[in-house]
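Many introductory courses stop at the sequence. We go one step further.
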Amino acid sequence: MSSQLAVVTVTYSPGRHLQEFLDSLEDATRMSTQVVMADNGSTDGAPEAAAAANSNVRLLRTGGNIGYGGAINRAVAELDPSCEFVMIANPDIRWGAGSIDALLDAAVRWPRAGALGPLVLEPDGSVYPSARHVPGLVSGAGHAVLGTVWPSNPWTTRYRQEDEQVSERSVGWLSGSCLLVRRAAFDSINGFDSRYFMYMEDVDLGDRLGRAGWHNVFVPSAEVTHAKGHAAGRHPELMLPAHHQSAYRFQADRHPHWWQAPLRWALKGGLAVRSKVAVAAAVRSRAKNEGDAHDD
């Protein structure tokens, strides 16, 4: 599969989102695109149907649910070495017109950009804070523990950068829901850390790119819409603990010294409590929604 650009996504019973992803991709770039779907065990038939209907789409079975980062790495390994850029995206992304071309143009302006990310819109048109600071131990713990119950806390405010001017700039990390990576940069840090099953793999990637001398560049002239959480929303009892475990792993990796152990213990305990509370709330909400739907 030789091309300057390839598009890689991970599928896990993506449903109708996948066809919207592929249909809108046609207007995202003037370049011909090859799409690799790394499938983590779909049961809805959507990836198979997409591969059969589109000659530029390839289905790659990973053999099981190996997580987002691991599946992306598996797909990138299949690409021809001549592929200079890889567009990594969730299958519930809907591409804005010219969005990929805008990212490629920015890559020319930023030759040390290892990753470039677009402006990500919610389905209601609001802006998702997809370009953020890399969280430190204190700020990360403050955001992780208080972000839901006190959204305006200073650690969350600084981390999410929602008050920053919407401008093209270098940031700490970019949302992995839609990310153009320079293949040389991605390969230089061995891609995603597959220990992150889901969540925080993009924070880790951005941080490691920065430490290796690459830039993470936010490009708001490129726009996409993200449906968000089609898998996570169905299985909060699995996904929310994975989120909290990833948050702990990220900080533990960066604070490994013996004298930092009390901070790690405190963070682990706080995240464990928050995870239990978040799962219970999500399960109650899901049960209520299902009950309301049944009543209708």
